[in-house]
Specification:
Number of domains of chain B: 1
Largest sheet of chain B: 2 strands, antiparallel
CATH topology of the largest domain in chain A: Rossmann fold
Structural class of chain A: alpha/beta
Strand content of chain B: under 5%
CATH class of chain B: Mainly Alpha
Number of domains of chain A: 3
Distance between the termini of chain B: 21 Å
Helix content of chain A: 25-40%
Number of helices of chain A: 17
Low-confidence stretches of chain B: 1-23
Shape of chain B: globular
Mean pLDDT of chain A: 87
CATH class of the largest domain in chain A: Alpha Beta
CATH superfamily of the largest domain in chain A: P-loop containing nucleotide triphosphate hydrolases
Strand order of the largest sheet of chain A: 6-9-10-3-11-12
Low-confidence stretches of chain A: none
Number of strands of chain A: 22
Radius of gyration of chain A: 24 Å
Order of helices and strands of chain B: HHHHHHEHEEHHHHEHHH
Strand order of the largest sheet of chain B: 1-4
Oligomer: heterodimer
Chain lengths: ~500, ~350
Amino acid sequence: MTTVLEVRNLVKEFPGVRALDGVDLDVLEAEVHCLLGPNGAGKSTLIKCVSGAIEPTSGEILFQGEPLPPGDPAGSLKRGVATIYQELDLVPDLSVAESIFLAHEPRRGPLLDLDRMDRESAALLARLGHDSIPTRAKVGKLRPAAQQIVSIARALSGDVRLLIMDEPSAILDDGEIDTLFDVVRRLTAEGVGVVYISHRLDEIRRIGDRVTVLADGRTAATGLPATTPTDQLVEHMVGRKVEQLYPDRPAGTDRVLLEVRGAKRLPFVRGVSLEVKAGEVVGLGGLVGSGRTELLRLIYGLDELEEGEVVFEGKRLRSGHPRNAIARGLGLAPEDRKSQALVLDWSQTKNVTVSDLRRFSRILLDVGKERETARAQLRALKTVPDDPDRAVRLLSGGNQQKVVLARWLLHECRVLLLDEPTRGVDIATKAEIYRIVAELAGTGLGVLVVSSELEELAHICTRVLVMREGEIVAELAGEDATELALLRHAVAPIEKPDLVEEVV
Amino acid sequence: MSGRTEASGTSRGGALAQRAKGLEFQEYALAIVVVLLFVAGSILKPETFPTWDNVRNMLTQASVVGVLAIGMTFVIATAGIDLSVGSMVAAAGVFGGILIGDDGTSSLVFILGAILFATFLGSVNATSIAYGRVVPFIATLAMFSVGRGLALLLNDKLPVSLLDLNGGSFGDPQPFSLLWFGTGRIFGIPVSVFVLLAVTILGWIVLNRTRYGRYVIAVGGNREAARIAGVPVRRIIFSVYVLSGFLAGISTVLLCARLGSASPVSGNLYELDAIGAVVIGGTSLAGGRATIVGTFLGVLTFALIFSLMTQLNLSTEIQQVTKGLIVLGAVLLQRPEARY
């Protein structure tokens, strides 16, 4: 086997931080090399150095035996290094073919050669086994998995020898992940080396050949077989043993806090009723697009109900008025922390107190008291760093999530809606978030949690409701809520979702 | 002092250190620019530039745009823009002018009339932007045209003389008469400068030390997150355009008081001066980052530059070109993500 990529003793210093402190990595042809590590371990910095997005301070990056020009993304791309970042970077209004050839459109004289674009796009999609994706459809109309394939096709429009994928599965549901893995296997069969970053150990087992673990900017372990037991991988990552990933399941009480009756807003929510009782953690499972997020938005008042009602502690909530919901004691930690939950340039303090400024203000804000109160909440959640003035932009995903949780703890809300609370969060912090959720339930809060990680739902919830196509199709309590059972209810009778069914 | 990094410590020393950290680079830089400009002026025109008279003049002239710029800072902090302030100044002046009668109480009538009318025009902007969901650029561009049109229509394109609004005195105008706001002095300092300082200090307190100010920055920083956190986003957006209109009313009073008349062609391009001052002060046009201190220094910078250029006999055309280049240069110096 030939080595595609060799990274030797790579160091990258940012002002005040050594993000990479001597990293080694070898990627072979035709292998899927998984990169594992807690947030802040340096995974993103490493791949940015390889893709040329940033310039390393010292160390070597050899690509097919030749050094890569440092800090030159076009140079890396030309030599055959393609990178797909976590957030899809597609323009929704462009067609599939236009997206694939964005910025290197084939031309005939001064004009675009549309026929050739179509033809070559179709060929690329066929190479990935997805010639059913129409090349003229707008990217925004495709399912996330199909969009991902368009991204990959775009990366492949040059001659790619190394494909780097940064958490490609984060936005996909289980069926879509299968599709993605098929594509990855096709590429490795052609001899392409793949670097695959994920927080999900189950995926690594399914798709990976070898694993490298990064921790604190160093290679903690490299070249491990993908079959390495979870305990060992986690140990490498956190440098110690994680005693218990999942806390005990909260039991719940009989007192109903939140009641949803026949909630409807087409096309995503088609008549949903549910209850959340004090002390319960209720899971909301299902595939991406089954209407879970939309249901949370309806409950919280971000969208207006077409039919039905939401009753909180015996009284109806005004539909379409989140401020009403908050005042009554509801809190929402939305799916996308950066765009929906946080003002990134703000300090931790300001992000924690924004929903409760009334507490600190007569006419003027008492900023000293505000800061101390926020600090107490942040400390209770062990937010790192312990600096209430630090801008949340500089925090890791897990700590950003804690800032959002601190906000609602300060607000003393009684029902907490969590949408994908551990997305993009490393495994040690995940364990902490599970513990926090269980403790909150222990104090009598009701928690409604949406998650695409079935394993997580299966372990932390008192009971799990499964949504499919805008309706609740199953309720599984306690031990009955196994991953397999949840998955069986979540997928529609047709086994594999058609990737282009949403094309209009 | 900016909304981004300012925070206060508990101990007094801590509070000071935090304050210093909060004063951002751009504010320091601008303060130095202001000092350098003053030194340059003093060297180039030692007889006329560093005189009390000249300083007084500069500040009086700066006060009109300065008051507008404070309002503009709030608007831009929400990631909005108000292109109509110049037109509102003209319309409010003429509106106040046609209200006055011959008696001595007309100062109050003019002042209230102008402020109320400008606030009303600001509310029209506010309604169409916050509730009609019109893009701020377009809504206030429309008001730019409507305001100017109203100013011309209200008194048949003619200016209104306000020279009688001196409180019935034969010498210096009576305190709190209209002309007093233009030519009156307290301890030798023009009244209009006190007005500018008061508006600036209040603006700083409101933006940095009240719940309202925090909400304004939140809306500009991340509108969706602000809504989910329970910030009354629409009301906040509504309010900044009303505030901008109200301050345009105050600005109208200062301008008309100084000129002794209300002209339908006054206030031309004031919106650009105000926006320019806000931008060189370091407030981000993308919203979410605003500094009143920076805006104030921006206003002073412009005032110094134009006073100096005028004294060096450079034409207004050259001043115009310079103004544009300064704004462009200042924006290019900002962090890339804060530019638009």
